[in-house]
What does this fold into?
Amino acid sequence: MISYFRSILPSRLILLVLLYLAIRVPLILLGIPATVPELNFMLVGERMADGFAMYREIYDSTAPLSALVYWTIDVVAGRSYLTYRLVATALLLAQALALNTTLIRNKVYQEKNYLPALVYLTLGCLTLEFEMLTPLLIGYTFVILSLPYFITLSREGLDNSRLFIGGFMLGLAALSFLPLALFLLMGLFAIIFFASATFRSSLLMLCGFAFPYAMLLSYYLFTGTVSNFLELHLLRPWQFEVSFLIPPADLAKLLVLPVLVLALSLFSMLSLPQRLVFQVKFQQLMVVWLMVSLMVIISRDEVSAALFLVLLPPIAYFSEFLFTSRMKPWVITLIYLVMLAGVVLLRYRQPLGVSAWVKIDESGILLPDSPPQSIKGTSVLVLGNDIRYYIHNKIATPYLNWKLSQRHFGWLKDYEAVFALYQNFQKESPEYIIDQVGLMPELKYKLPTVFDAYEATDAPAVYKRQGKQNRSL
It folds into this structure.
């Protein structure tokens, strides 16, 4: 089977895509589980589609370019898990093919093949979180697209305009998922490996990276949102307070396959004879890519399987050395079949009835099967982290992310925070407030003109507004 993909004939590409879809599509047909991150993305897109500005009227750390993607999806399809999954499927396929095309065009290997794309797409089906349209998935597409602009300098006579474009791509990646700005280190090492005028080339890359940020900051300066952008997005992701969305033991189960493939690939690479200078430099660059990927993972305050998507390109690159090694063909094929079987077993563990033996606790990212039904089709504000009340409702006021909402709710002794709450609730008044943190008594005392309109209901911690809303939603 592996030998079949050691060619770049069109039939190999067609079978590669069909194999990828054969793993993904049945999962969609079996039912799409609703997840907390995707609902959060949908709320961002929905609120932007309703005319509210990101960071000024939506308190969330989602990167601006990713928020634009979610807004576009909401305008086209509304709240649609199917659309999110289809777009994510298309992006992962595009990433694999773009990376493989770059490797082929630049003759990175001794022979041209689709093995990196095969491994990329197979491991890309490893977990439910790789199927979600996350900001990382959106931004990582730009990182992969930037690669050709860094590695072709020595082969095309130092066309430094390409460095500006490469930096621009990395800027778009950071505007989609801020920690991807760390891939500037990859760009810097690429310049060291492939360019001669290192200082001038580095400045060109940095100018390209800064250009989309300059355009965005100009817009935020015009709309008076710069301070909110800095506070809610640009500085937020670097706060190192690590928490695991799925148990570390279960995360380790998911990572066994990719780590094993990476280890075997690196071992196979070390046993290879000396190759061309360009190929050796590219190999060094991919080692840097691997190191930067690990830095991206540890830079986040919430660790989940979705972050390990950044490891797919280096694993796919190094895997070619494993699957073209001097081992017997049947051993190489067996290694891939074990990898494929492991991916299928993990993703289809419930339909196959093996979830009792292969336990992966994903409750931290899955929405409950039975959301509150008593509140439906209205506007809601949840004072707390439980966003399941938004499954069948719209959010009112900017307070989507509860951690970021502490800039007001966590400083009720401060006049400016209380006044900001008053202004936001004057613009929008939710029909229901779900007080999971017990703030309503203090809010009623500090802002009686706003919160005295809310009366407790029979449901615990649920307050309903009496009278008309200030703004129709």
Q: What stands out?
A: The mean pLDDT is 89. The longest strand covers residues 379-383.
